[in-house]
Every structure is written in structure tokens, then in C-alpha cells.
Amino acid sequence: MIRDTADFERWFAERCAAHSFRVEQVPLDELDGWRTDPETGNLHHRTGRFFSVEGLRITATGPVARSWAQPVIRQTEHGVLGILLQRHEGVPHVLLQAKTEPGNINAVQLSPTVQATVSNYTRVHRGSAVRYLEHFLRPRPGTVRYDALQSEQGSWFLAKRNRNMIVELPPEQAVDVHDDYCWVPLPVLPDLLRVPHLVNMDTRTVLAGLPRPGPPPRKGAPGKPLHTWTDLQHHLTRSKLRHRVERCVVPLREADGWHREDGEIRRDDGRFFRIIGVEVSASSREVTSWAQPMLAPASQGVVAFLSKEIGGVRHLLVQVRYEAGTADVCELAPTVQCAPGNLPVSGPRPPFLDTVLQAPTERVLFDTVHSEEGGRFHHAANRYVVVEAAGLPLDVPETHMWVSVDQLTRAAQLGGMVNVEARCLLTCVHTLPGHGQEAMT
């Protein structure tokens, strides 16, 4: 049983040493099991399952009108991202896995108890069964603590959603724990979340739905958020109506500004991302070798919240963000979400980006580089930052809104309101004093 960070570090080092893992980039034309449609240029698996890479044309109207085309990952089936929760000696623990993914920067990261697509757990790949899956497909009555269909990266996926779940087992229920899994005490997680490329994206997004008490208001303060819950709903709904995003799936070869060369698909100017092919061998996976396309970002991004106490209540500044593949036009997103390397040399910069990048050290509450989903993205990473913004005025651009940590947590638990980057950073926010840390202790 792991009791502290030192115990975890010993266990994780053992699991990393036990894993044999190799990833090699190969031309897209040489991917075993994948084919390029001669008419469309789309990439498909020979089974018609898993996912495909297709073209998408987008026209956005509203305050900012623009249009573009791009490759997009189309994965219509919903996967399961599930975490088992159980109290040991009165302390809540979560069952997490040391798992290899082809896109992980450091190969092995800490993943949920279950992280599998329908194609995975129905064993289209003819691999071994997914462990602990029965707890999420057939949970016992009264054990589900969180269950929501949640979006993933809207810039790279077309309307992709996964089922995020937390299931609590009674303390007396015995669980056969495989060597690659361990019960991690919740009080240890704040330390782990500050280690770069350790806690994977899927774990962070599920933990955002962890039932938790909100931080108590400061003594003598009114303890009310700046805006009501209805105000927040109105702000998001109004934003959806003010903007129209027309999407049209097109043949990949018709994605203007993109071309296929040297065995990969890239943008003419080299910005944003490439589609590459990889061959993988992994001793610890349900299937020990496979090949697949992956999306490889051109640069590291910045995902940041500005944080401010208002009326004795801790607030975060969110924005309403529109992305190519978002299922319902837009979602609540972090204050800043961009890849500075993709920005044009001249032209306007995203609101508050420089506030985050130029923040003095003493105002930076959280700052860690985390990886994004390693099953589809190759070496994708964002700098996750929380900055104290005590001097920032309450008046903000109409694209942004101050919401309390409790309000954003509630929105994240409902599904379909908060994007994956904000949920991942919200999990980190909950480890900070005065931001809901009580649930992690």
C-alpha cells in the first residue's frame, strides 16, 4: 500500500523499468492495418473501427468571422475513462495505472483505472481484456459518484466525447491489484500533479469531476460569487447564439493549405501540427505491437487561469472558446489557451496572454508542463499555469467572465460545458490552498 510520495516514487520507478516500449516514426503509406482512400486521401483502419483522419472545412460567423480547412481526427465511438475510488483506513484512494502510450514524452504516465475505446474493450484488436472494466459498464447501485460525457480537444478532434466516471467501492470490497496499478491516496496527488508529464490527461480530466466540498468563505465575508449560476448559463448560451460555426467534412486531399509529403501530412507554412505515422511495440499493453497515424503539434501551448478573490470567494477567469471540432459550438475554457509559436509575428495577441507570461514568480500559484492525450497525439504538451491576479479589474472583455471555483467545478461535473483543457487545469487548481484543496487531503 502506498502511503506517501516516496512510496509512490519507488513503485513508479519499478514499473517504468519493467516496461519495454519502442515508438518509431514511419511513412503513412507503410502503416500496417491502415489504408489511404485513393479518392479522398482519408486515412482509415482496415476494420473501419478505432478512428480516421479526414478533412474539415470551417466557416465561423459572429464578432470574428473567419474560415479555414484542416485535417481532423474523427472518432465516433465513446470511450470509457474511469477511476475507482475506495477508502483505506479512512483515507480516500484512487486506483491508477502506470501505462505506456505511443505519444507520451516519457513513455509511462499515470492513467485512470480504465482508459479504453469501445474498439479496445470489445477487442477488435484481438488483444487481452481491459482490466476492471466491469466496475464501469455494470456498476453496483449507489457506487457511481460521477458520470458524464465530456469533450476532448476541439481543435484536433471532430465532436469527440468520452464517458468520464468515478465509481466508489465499499472499503470492505477486495480488489485484485495488478502490478501496473496502485492505490494512490488523494493527499499524495497534489505532489504528483506538480511533476511534469506524470499524471496523464485522462486522469486529470476525470479527477475534475471528483465530488468535493467547496472552500469555506473567509470569516466575515459575504461568501457569494460575483455572478449567479443562471448568469453563467446565460453567458454561455448567449455566446452560442451570437456565433455560428458551419462545419463540413471534406476529403482530406481537399483541405486547403495542407499537403502530403515525405510520408506525412503537414501545413504549407509548418504551423499548428503534422499527421505522422508510428510503429509501436509495448510489452505491457493489451496488444503488444501495432501501427497508427498520430497528430504531432508544432509547438508547446499555454493553458492558464487567472485567479482572484472576490468578496471572500475564490474566482477564476474563464473565456468562451470556439474550436473547429467542438460538438456544441463553444465551451468554457481557461483564461488563456493558445500555442504562442503558432501566433503570427504581427497582429493582435490573445487577451491576458502577456499577463500570464510576464507574471512575477511570487504570483504564480501553479506552473507545470503536462502532456496531452498520448494515444492520438505525439509529444503534445501544454504549460499549465495558475496566476494570482489580485489587481486585475472585475470588468473584462465580453468573451470572458469571472466564475467561482465552485461554479466551474459544478459546470465541469455536468458535461458539455467545460472544455478538456479547463477541466485538466481545474484539477490542478483544486490542489491549491483556498481553491478547494480540502478534497485532496
What this model shows, in words?
Strands 6, 7, 8, 9, 10, 11 and 12 form a 7-stranded mixed beta sheet that branches. Strands 18, 19, 20, 21, 22, 23 and 24 form a 7-stranded mixed beta sheet that branches. The longest helix is centred in the first third of the chain and has 14 residues, at 5-18. The model has no long low-confidence stretch (mean pLDDT 93). This protein has 9 helices and 24 strands. It has a domain at 229-246 and 299-440: EvaA sugar 2,3-dehydratase subunit (Nucleoside Triphosphate Pyrophosphohydrolase, Alpha-Beta Complex), CATH 3.90.79. The chain is α+β, with helices and mostly antiparallel strands and 441 residues long. The protein has helices at 5-18, 118-121, 134-137, 189-192, 201-207, 229-242, 353-357, 405-414, 420-429; strands spanning 21-26, 34-36, 43-45, 52-61, 66-74, 79-88, 91-100, 108-111, 114-116, 144-151, 161-169, 181-185, 244-250, 258-261, 264-267, 273-282, 289-297, 301-310, 313-322, 330-333, 336-338, 364-371, 381-388, 400-404. Helix 5 (201-207) crosses helix 9 (420-429).
Topology:
Blueprint: H1 5-18, E1 21-26, E2 34-36, E3 43-45, E4 52-61, E5 66-74, E6 79-88, E7 91-100, E8 108-111, E9 114-116, H2 118-121, H3 134-137, E10 144-151, E11 161-169, E12 181-185, H4 189-192, H5 201-207, H6 229-242, E13 244-250, E14 258-261, E15 264-267, E16 273-282, E17 289-297, E18 301-310, E19 313-322, E20 330-333, E21 336-338, H7 353-357, E22 364-371, E23 381-388, E24 400-404, H8 405-414, H9 420-429
Parallel strand pairs: 6-11, 18-23
Antiparallel strand pairs: 1-16, 2-3, 3-4, 4-5, 4-13, 6-7, 6-9, 7-8, 7-12, 10-11, 14-15, 15-16, 16-17, 18-19, 18-21, 19-20, 19-24, 22-23
Helix pairs in contact: 5-9
